[in-house]
């Protein structure tokens, strides 16, 4: 177990029939240290993550079919972008395949909801990152009835079958649902309206969506109850403390990559012979 953790992050955050309405979004499950210790640890652990990711990439180059997919879900301002910058930002970009899923385009709307998702699945050796995902199709789509109930109701089973297929093809799936309080969201939206460098992140619709908070909580609850499988587990991440959220996701990825038991690929040439050739050259 990593330093300062009283409990493995996978145990501390694994979804297990909790009521998200009761979640303390300012808690730091499993972590015994404070912010300062958390930040120091984040930079140390970022190095470990980067090493593991490089192994994944190297193995992908030599025929290993495996990959990792991080799915990030959360309301606006929950910190998904911060995870991408501060956690994924610590690894080599050539091994990362990042996708943000926004409102579907006209072309995407003409296809099944998983169509655009399939196209962005990580290839062997890659760490795929989804900033929003197919879960929007049972979150925003459910809350705003973008499709009839009969249709979104079927999507949970379709998602499970899809993720089973993805996992069987060699992708380790890590799903993280980030939760902040309604007050914390207000603070963060305030900041977006007070700083010129943050206007670009703000949409007037974000305030409208705050009015649907209970409906979103209900929709998230259904996601966690109906799509939390052992081949694609959900982790419930209290995200009021950005430092904690970043550290926790770093540990979740380290855990997933460690589970792959990745060694460096062996040389497919005779090292001694190549050394002799090099010295003679
Ligand atoms: P942002 O992540 O702030 O760039 O916002 C992306 C927006 O796209 C959010 O309002 C999402 O709810 C919306 N969005 C993402 N996926 C879907 C989807 N499948 N259907 C409808 N809206 C979506
Ligand atoms: Mg937004």
UniProtKB/TrEMBL annotation:
Kinase listed as a keyword: yes
Highest rank taxon of the organism: Bacteria
Keyword Transferase among record annotations: yes
NCBIfam families: PPK2_rel_1 (TIGR03709)
Entry keyword set: Kinase, Transferase
Protein known as: Polyphosphate kinase-2-related domain-containing protein
SUPFAM superfamilies: P-loop containing nucleoside triphosphate hydrolases
Signal sequence annotation: none
């Amino acid at each position: 177990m990593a330093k300062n953790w009283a409990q493995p992050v996978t145990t501390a955050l694994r979804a297990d029939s909790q009521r998200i309405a009761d979640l303390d979004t300012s808690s730091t499950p499993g972590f015994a240290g404070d912010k300062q210790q958390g930040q120091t640890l984040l930079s140390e652990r970022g190095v470990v993550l980067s090493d593991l990711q490089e192994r994944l990439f190297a193995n992908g180059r030599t025929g290993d079919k495996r990959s990792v997919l991080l799915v990030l879900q959360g309301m606006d301002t929950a910190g998904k972008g911060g995870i991408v910058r501060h956690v994924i930002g610590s690894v080599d970009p050539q091994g990362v395949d990042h996708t943000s899923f926004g409102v579907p385009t006209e072309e995407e709307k003409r296809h099944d909801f998983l169509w655009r998702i399939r196209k962005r699945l990580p290839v062997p050796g890659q760490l795929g990152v989804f900033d929003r995902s197919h879960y929007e199709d049972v979150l925003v789509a459910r809350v705003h009835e973008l499709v009839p109930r009969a249709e979104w109701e079927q999507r949970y089973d379709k998602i499970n079958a899809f993720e089973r297929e993805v996992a069987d093809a060699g992708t380790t799936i890590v799903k993280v649902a980030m939760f902040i309080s309604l007050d914390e969201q207000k603070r963060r939206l305030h900041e977006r309206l007070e700083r010129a460098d943050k206007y670009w992140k703000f949409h007037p619709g974000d305030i409208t969506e705050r009015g649907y908070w209970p409906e979103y909580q209900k929709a998230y609850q259904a996601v966690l109850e109906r799509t939390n499988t052992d081949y694609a587990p959900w982790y419930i991440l209290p995200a009021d403390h950005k430092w904690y959220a970043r550290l926790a996701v770093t540990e979740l990825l380290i855990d997933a990559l460690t589970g792959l038991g990745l060694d460096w690929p062996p040389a497919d040439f005779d090292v001694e012979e190549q050394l002799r050739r090099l010295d003679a050259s």
